[in-house]
From TrEMBL:
PROSITE patterns noted in UniProt: RIESKE (PS51296)
Protein's name in the database: Aromatic ring-hydroxylating dioxygenase subunit alpha
Example of a GO MF term: dioxygenase activity
Nucleotide-binding is among the record's keywords: no
Pfam families, per the entry: Rieske, Ring_hydroxyl_A
UniProt source species: Albidovulum sediminis
PANTHER family, alphabetized: CHOLINE MONOOXYGENASE, CHLOROPLASTIC
Keywords annotated in UniProt: 2Fe-2S, Dioxygenase, Hydrolase, Iron, Iron-sulfur, Metal-binding, Oxidoreductase
Cofactor(s) the record lists: Fe cation
Domain Rieske span(s) in chain numbering: 44-153
């Protein structure tokens, strides 16, 4: 049985290397290909919540790093994950990001029919295929894990343990905020931003910028915000609100109407918590919602952002109002973070850029970078290798590392 890799956060050392990843790693096409294969295809990715697909035949799809995932609830009620490609010519079996199949999935290219458990029911004009055993042509399964209601997929075997072990340090958070019981408040939303995915994570992995860049968050809880870093690349942030009434309209009214549910432990009734799951997943817990968001690389300079907000199953009018107010705060914060990501990402092409010099308050950024360096040791090199030598250099450093 796998055990948690890390149970306690990393302390900030007294003397540590304050440099971040070198600028070339944010723009290299060759490194981007390695990241797709060794970071995104081999690590757990959040697909959604089981409440997103409540009925047999309900499904979700998502594309990540040249791979396509399909998560569907079978006729037996079991949730399964598959590669979203027909075994005939590779077309998408499910074309929409979310939908429902009535009893079977039908490939829109040539009409091959698959049962909801992924087995092939039949090929169109089967006599034209000669001696073909249907049992050999079911949809290819993905690793799928479900933990506290959230669904995770992985395209290839990788270094992370089962999700329950990977996120074990945050078991109490998922339990206390009753993550397994939430329901969708809307659809899973996506957007795109013209930056490298690591620039998005660099902004998101530290709260040092909150006081200057996020007026609403500073107004809400900036005085109490704290970050924690874990050696496996995971992270967490916690902040308590309500010590002041709030100056901004959204904050003032959120503080006024935010519920303090008695089923939450007393020390969490006025808390916003963030749990970061390497490489890009984030969960948010507030008194009225549970949320997730994540970043998927589309190219070295373009990133897809994907996320959803979930409500309480017995949501009151007060909780609905506070959820709306929290959304207003998050919406403005998101816009501010996008601009910060753009500025940071574009600076790395400047001849004046000499790298990061990180604060103790940005140790979680280094923590994320350290995990990337462990996976792709070529990122340890300050000067960019030739593009056609990036993969070879990575393997040479890896083989020389004890």
């Amino acid at each position: 049985m796998n055990r948690p890799l890390v149970t306690k956060p990393r302390p900030v050392p007294e003397d540590w290397d304050r440099r971040g990843l070198p600028g070339w790693t944010y723009h290299s096409k060759a490194l981007f290909e390695l990241e797709k294969r060794e970071v995104f295809q081999t690590h757990w990715q959040i697909a959604g919540h089981v409440s997103d697909i409540p009925a047999p035949g309900d499904y979700l799809t998502m594309d990540i790093a040249d791979e396509r995932a399909l998560v569907i609830r079978g006729a037996d009620g079991v949730v399964r994950g598959f590669h979203n490609l027909c075994r005939h010519r590779g077309a998408r079996v499910a074309a929409e990001e979310k939908g429902h199949c009535k009893g079977a999935m039908v490939c829109p290219f040539h009409g091959w029919v698959y049962n909801l458990d992924g087995t092939l029911r039949g090929a169109a004009r089967p006599g034209s295929f000669g001696d073909m055993d249907r049992a050999d042509f079911g949809l290819k399964p993905l690793d799928l894990d479900i933990w506290h209601g959230f669904m995770f997929v992985r395209f290839r075997p990788g270094p992370q343990p089962a999700v329950r072990d990977l996120l074990a340090p945050f078991e109490r958070d998922f339990t206390d905020w009753r993550a397994a019981d939430v329901l969708p408040s809307g659809t899973i939303v996506t957007s795109e931003i013209d930056v490298n995915w690591k620039s998005v994570r660099d902004v998101d992995n530290e709260g040092y910028h909150v006081a200057m860049a996020h007026p609403a968050l500073q107004d809400l809880y900036g005085r109490t915000y704290r970050d924690l870093a874990f050696a496996n690349g995971n992270s967490a942030s916690y902040a308590t609100f309500g010590d002041t009434p709030g100056r901004l309209w959204s904050v003032r009214n959120y503080v006024k109407f935010a519920p303090a549910p008695d089923w939450l432990p007393a020390d969490k009734r006025k808390v916003w918590a963030y749990v970061g799951m390497f490489p890009t997943g984030v969960f948010i817990f507030t008194p009225e919602t549970v949320q997730f968001y994540q970043d998927f690389p589309l190219s070295p300079g373009r990133t897809l952002q994907r996320g959803a907000i979930y409500r309480r199953p017995d949501e009151t009018r007060q909780e609905r109002l506070s959820r709306y107010l929290a959304y207003r705060i998050d919406r403005e914060t998101g816009k501010e973070d996008v601009q910060l990501s753009i500025w940071s990402n574009e600076s790395m092409k400047s001849s004046a850029f000499e790298g990061f010099h990180l604060s103790d308050l940005e140790f979680a950024v280094k923590n994320h970078h350290d995990q990337l360096r462990r996976i792709l040791p070529v990122m340890r090199i300050q000067d960019a290798p030739a593009e056609d030598r990036v993969c070879e250099t990575n393997e040479r450093i890896r083989s020389a590392t004890p």
